[in-house]
Write a structure and sequence with these properties.
The protein is α/β, with parallel strands linked by helices. The chain contains 18 helices and 8 strands.
Length: about 500
């Protein structure tokens, strides 16, 4: 089992051990190019690292393997990874906040998972070798084969496994009595449209109610926690369906192959999901609600297949991505001058005017200043209080709809999927591409929204030809109107949209 000193010299054993470590990294990179993106892949990664660490220690018998094995393994991962699109697996950009986030998500978190497991394997291997070896081992400068160290690392690794195996779930819908509502639906489900699986969240007090499909923003944003909390009242009157699209959140494993992740495919997926929901709930048509990027996706879905939808409801409606970015670029430069922020001006000028070549880093910088560009406003108290009570955390990653790997994927999807999808949106302009829609249109307008988006929305709406159209403007809302004004959204759907569009 062990390679003895008499069979192979110390340098030979070190070379063989390092080859094992590097080969393990190459194997892991080939099996999981983006690192572990599912719970099973995370467990496989831990198993590979445990095995590699044990073998390296057994072969070398050196405490130096505590350092050398992880270094060679991670080098093997980087060298063995195929070319992929996305900042989390791309060149390091540690001089920018967005680049640091990509490094943490793509390298640091998977690396820590691998490291602790490999160190456990190394300690286990060193102890095993000492127990059976006839030759006393040299101590080296990294003595670490103690049973205490083995025990501590074992506790950490077992704890990680327990956390990884903790499943995601969504809570039942409760009546005022505190009991689950009989016949209600609260489910996370995987669906497939002839391609990779994607996840949807379905919540409804009564499955006989009309269906409302929500399209999240980004591109790449997952809103499962937000919709569960903020659309709770909608579930009284609708079958509310939230969807993690390809490469997003719980559907992040479907990101590859990236050449199939096109806007046209996203529209086709929307139609496929619509057909699935129509058949499942026995509805001839459903309602479509979109937020930000989801409004571009939704408008094109409605334009191509109007017979599938009762109405279109747009929140944070986007119209022309490139023109919006150009206007935002000017607003950011003006803000930098107003604040005397020469560093910001220099940074934006280095990116150059849109369309940006350096996606998503330029966009990430602009996003960081949205709050400064909004008109002053105070979000509704109910929105603030409900958000505080829910404690969903940054980008709702604390939501119980996400398991441990999903939490990382929520952010990975926002970084990588954005990079792939956003450039495809830059050629779109609803004023040219969707001057008319054959369904009723309802637009939720936040008066505090940045002018670069709001002005184009109102311009498109004014010229839009539709069987019926309405715009609802709110003083205390900006971009995410459907969330900030969730109570008003419920009222509008019940008092206006349903009476005007729904026939049982």
């Amino acid at each position: 089992m062990f390679i003895s000193d008499s069979f192979m010299s110390w340098p030979g054993r070190m070379v063989l051990g390092m080859l094992v470590a590097g080969s393990g990294g190459v194997l892991a990179a080939r099996m999981m190019p983006r690192g572990p993106v599912t719970t099973s892949q995370a467990l496989i990664t831990m198993g590979i690292c445990l095995l590699v660490g044990t073998l390296v220690a057994v072969i070398t018998g050196s405490n130096w393997s505590m350092l050398a094995a992880p270094v060679l393994y991670f080098l093997g991962v980087e060298l063995g990874r195929p070319d992929l699109v996305g900042p989390t697996v791309g060149p390091l950009r540690l001089n920018e906040a967005y680049g640091i986030l990509a490094f943490v998500l793509g390298r640091l978190l998977p690396g820590l998972l691998s490291l602790v497991t490999m160190l456990l394997g190394v300690r286990l291997g060193l102890i095993l070798r000492r127990m059976v070896s006839e030759t006393p081992q040299s101590e080296g400068i990294l003595a670490g084969e103690s049973f205490l160290g083995l025990g501590l690392l074992s506790v950490v690794v077992i704890g990680l496994v327990i956390l990884l195996l903790r499943p995601a779930s969504t809570p039942p819908l409760f009546a005022e009595s505190g009991q689950p509502i009989p016949g209600s639906i609260a489910r996370l489900e995987k669906v497939s449209f002839g391609g990779p699986e994607q996840t949807i969240l379905i919540r409804a007090e009564d499955p006989e109610n009309p269906v409302l499909l929500y399209l999240s923003g980004g591109p790449g944003q997952s809103d499962l926690g937000y919709t569960r909390v903020l659309f709770r009242d909608l579930a009284e009157d609708f079958v509310v369906v939230s969807w993690d699209q390809r490469g997003t959140g719980k559907s992040y494993p479907s990101l590859d192959p990236t050449d199939e992740l096109t806007f046209e495919q996203a529209v086709a997926d929307t139609h496929e999901l619509t057909e699935y929901l129509r058949k499942r709930f026995g509805e001839e048509k459903i309602y479509l609600l979109g937020e930000s990027y989801g409004t571009m996706l939704g408008v094109f879905a409605v334009k191509q297949r109007p017979e599938l939808y009762h109405a279109w409801i747009g929140s944070g409606q986007m119209v022309d991505i490139t023109e919006t970015d150009r206007r935002l670029y000017g607003e950011i430069l003006a803000y930098a001058d107003q604040q005397g922020n020469q560093e910001l001006r220099d940074q934006m000028e280095a990116y150059g005017p849109p369309p940006y070549a350096d996606i998503p880093y330029a966009n990430g910088t602009v996003m960081g200043y949205y709050q400064a560009l909004y008109a002053p406003y105070t979000p509704p108290r109910a929105y603030v209080e409900l958000g505080q009570e829910a404690r969903l955390g940054f980008m709702n990653i604390n939501s119980q709809e996400y398991n441990l790997v999903d939490k990382a994927n929520v952010l990975r999807g926002l970084v990588d999927m954005f990079t792939i999808m956003y450039p495809q949106l830059e050629a779109l302009d609803l004023r040219r591409d969707a001057p008319e829609l054959d369904v009723p249109v309802y637009i939720l307008d936040g008066k505090a929204e940045v002018a670069a988006r709001r002005d184009l929305t109102l311009e498109w709406f004014d010229s839009l030809q539709a069987p019926r159209k309405r715009v609802y403007s709110f003083q205390n809302a900006a971009h995410s109107v459907a969330f900030e004004q969730f109570q008003e959204l419920h009222r509008i759907l019940i008092e206006d949209v349903l009476p005007e569009t729904y026939e049982e």
